[in-house]
Fold each of these.
Amino acid sequence: MIRLPGVLLATFSLLAWSQTPNPAAEPRLKVMLDPGHGGDDSGANGAKGLKEKSAAMELARAVGAKLEAAGFQAAYTRENDTFIPLWDRAKAANDNGADLFISLHLNAAHTKAARGSEVFFLSLGKGEDDEVVAAENAGAGAGQGRSDTVLASILDDLAQKAFLQDSERLAVAIQGQLNRLAGIKERGVKQAPFIVLRGAAMPAILVEVAFISNPREEEKLKDRAFRAKVAEAITVGVRRYFAETNGGVRRRAVEGPD
């Protein structure tokens, strides 16, 4: 056995310590989860009594648990049955320094046969699926939770315009996983002027996980195992998104015009 002098041993110990990665040096990527609706705004209701606000909250908890297990930090715009004004949800993500914003919802249609998931990112003009947009924007009110001025609108647009391409990449990554891992029919990635996405200073998307108006999908949404599959799909989508960007696309300051 070779015995090293005390000075050399201490030197080697310091070198080894200096080359050991420090987990605390790099903060965990933070994902702000937004369970749609809440409080007096129940959202869409299923034929068998499931409320969108409750299903969205359960999905958010499941996604948050999966994200935490994968090494991310999860935060929530609401953690109980309260209503948060739509304008304040992106603001909460900004104030919390979130790197991604994901708003979780359930779709509804007049025909019970409609099924599947679709993932939206913001459109600054006219978007797709006006019926869905009207339903999800219904709780916003006129300037509720913000100063409804021309300047505020311009700043909202600037905040998300910087991230539209990144938001689309995130939407594509998650939509593909919902189809592959959760077995949900893929209805595509779309753009729409959702108020909840306005002003988010990071990539932001809205996920319509399934159709609560479809009795079969309503039953699936009540199943914890199915919600776990959805959560896994969203988490894998988030991981793939960051892998594609080498972790480089994170929240950053958005500056206004000179």
Note: The first strand starts at residue 30 and ends at 35.
Amino acid sequence: MKLSSARRRRLRSLDDALLPLINIVFLLMVFFLFVGRVGGLPADEQGPRSRADIHAAEAAPRQLELRADGRLLADGREIAEAELAVQALAWRGAAVDVRAPAEAAADRVMRLLGLLRQAGVGELRLLTVRARDAG
């Protein structure tokens, strides 16, 4: 059973008309696969889930400074080491920058970091401050 030449031409013209449409759809599909993500964000990249988390994420990091003479400053206010546990509980979930001079005793710095971690501070960053050269 042979097709007539008119019917063959009509099928060929239909194929020729659909080919550019198929190419465009394929190119769009490839484009969106590269640009988009399928399945949403991974769990570790999802945003905060509560208002407290949003507030903690937007807040600037808290500052804890250990001075060379042994004094502690929390957000610019001098506190005793005994008060640090209460202050650390208030900072629960927040980021904290701990500034310590290069000559500070390592065991004291580690004790401060451990106390902050036990209180549930979110992110801890230790910043060592070099002594300025005189002259």
Note: The first strand starts at residue 62 and ends at 66.
Amino acid sequence: MLARERRDRMRGEFVDIGGVRLYYYAAGTRGVGEPIVLLHGFPTSGHIWTEVVPLLPTGHRVVVVDLLGYGRSDRPGRGDALTLRAHADRVVALLDSLGINFAAVVGHDAGGGVAQCMAVHYPQRVSRLSLINSVAFDGWPTRDVRLARAAAPLTRHLPAPWVLSVVRGDLLRGYVDQERGAHSIEKFVRPFTGPEGRDAFLCHLASLDARETMALVPRLGALAIPVSIVWGQDDPFLPVSLATRLHAAIPGSSLTMLPGLRHFTPEEAPAKVADAIGELLGR
């Protein structure tokens, strides 16, 4: 019943942040617990959290963001707007507009890199941090992404449907349930249809830079907040070695491995992800 009620209370809207529109939806109500902010990765959207949100503890305001260039948010006007730091700056500005002083920040994939940026550069705004199959260190982007980026000058002249067919096939490797994966991927790739969408996708590819996460490494050990790390153990994109490195780099962090799961754990194991976030909120 509580899960159904939280779904019914979801509210979505656009907010202008520095001249671009970000889409977010909120669930729950303001309560005694701090708000929870959920950040997706590349090339997905806030849809990835759909099944997690109803399972989160009550008494928290939950904010799910479509980062710039993804989901319903505006397409990027330039590549430098898509760095992890630029995304982090805009999320903080969104929290300002929503009157949220601090929040538990949860990030998946590149959203985990954005969350790390927020925790390092805006420590007063992040009360707790959860990294789920997150980019980290120099362990990303994947070899396939690097090859695709190298081929970008050619790819710009290829038909957009062909480019998307390659993207779909690669993303499916991150799912155990191929039917679920195919359904979600269709939602994820909507912003990248047509020639303009193809060019926007290539802009995202060009922005993926491990130097950003490497620059954060010296400051991870100084994080003075509860941190949880959750990982699908069979992730084909971001190996479990990244999880163990993060765990070692962040004193006091917890590490939860999810056997039999791949990359898209928020979709394929929403209860386990929600439980991990609930445990973090209790620390």
Note: The first helix runs from residue 2 to 8.
